[in-house]
Every structure is written in structure tokens, then in C-alpha cells.
Amino acid sequence: MTAANSDRVALVTGSSKNIGRAIALALAKNGTNVVVHAAQDQAQAEQTLKQLESYGVKGMVTLGDLSNPDTATQIITEVIAEFGRLDILVNNAAIRPETPIADISYAEWRKVMGVCLDAVFLISQAALQPLRQSDQGTIINIGGLTAHTGAANRAHVISAKAGLVGFTKALACELSPENITVNCIAPGLIDTVRDRGNKPHHHATRTNLLGRRGLPEEVAEAAVFLAGSSARYITGQTIHVNGGAYLP
Fold it and tell me: Across the chain, which distance is largest between two alpha carbons, in Å?
């Protein structure tokens, strides 16, 4: 079965698993062709691709370190060569190490900034031309709860995610004349699979009003809404998906 929106194309960075995979699949279920990106885990990315293609849309896998300017440009080139367009960019790729401030090396600081903030700038800049050509160009940045509440042992991650909120506002102001909307989703307390099974320390003590952990699919539904035609009057906003853990 081919979905109704099968001409639209989305690139979801860091979509080999967890929230990124859920967003890719939700967009595909809604009829959008999806480019699956991973830094290097091709096997997991191929699994995402196989699942999304079951919804009758087209997809492809692209790999690379988005903190490298050449990689960001190359990925957009690959997307345009395959599909001829790009309508939706979801900046989800991130790393979230936990290290006390006294022990964070400059190399670790720069690595986190590179993946969580620099990469968003680079791929967004590289994607500008095709997004400008779309009649519903959309950028969605995936932030985080702790950028708004703070947490111990995550100075680099929180700084990068807070910067992402500012970047979202800046792009919304600059790109609105070109009919490109830019928003941020800040998930919180989401039940995801972590490397080596590690859960963030703040998850052990933080609670929310709904009394449960959220699902990646619940974050994905917010992304589908922001990427759709019903959300064209929303830009420059941070949408919190956290079960009431934080009330701005």
C-alpha cells in the first residue's frame, strides 16, 4: 500500500534506535519517505529501514559523523540524488555521557558539543536549499528535559541542549520568511534502551505527574504533528513531552 504523502521526504538523524527510530517509523506510517541516519551502526539502521518500508514508503540508509562539515554536505547530496527533494529535517542524533564537571576533559566537552550542537548547525545549513524549495519545509530539533531543569554530571550535555533551544529560536526568526518552520521537542523520562544498560542518574529520583516513563512513540507523535500541515502556524517553540516532570 502506498501512503498519500509519499512524495514528501524526511531525514531523521540518529534514527537507528530509540526515539529516532520511533520518529522515522511514525513519519513513514504517515506516508513520508524517510532517510535513516546513523553514525556507524548500519545493522540497526537497516532494521529501521526494513520496518519503515513495510508502510509502503521509500527509504534509504546513510552513515556518517555529522560533526564533520564534509559529512553533513555529503549526506544531503545523497538524499537529493536519491529523492530529488527534502521536506523535513529531524535533528535527533546525540550522545549523553555523565561525568562530573571536575573530570570533563576538553576533548569530551568538544565531542558532546560536536554531536549535539555543531552537527545540528552543519546539517541544517547543508539542508537549506532543498528545504527552501519545499512548500512545507520543516526543521525539528530534539532537545532534552535537563536543558530546562538542570542535572548533575551533565554540564556538557545540558549546555549543548540549551544551545539547541536558542538555535531553534534563531532559525525560526531567520527562516520564517521562507515558509520554513523550526521547532524543538524536549523529551523527558522516556523509556529507551541505553548503551550498556546505563540509565541517567537523575532518572532514579525524578518523577512526573503521570507516574510513568514515556514511550519513544509518544515523542514521535509530537514530531509527526510538527512536520504536518496542521502545524504550519507553530514555529520557534519548544514542545515538552515529559508527563508533567517540568511545567514551564
Answer: 55
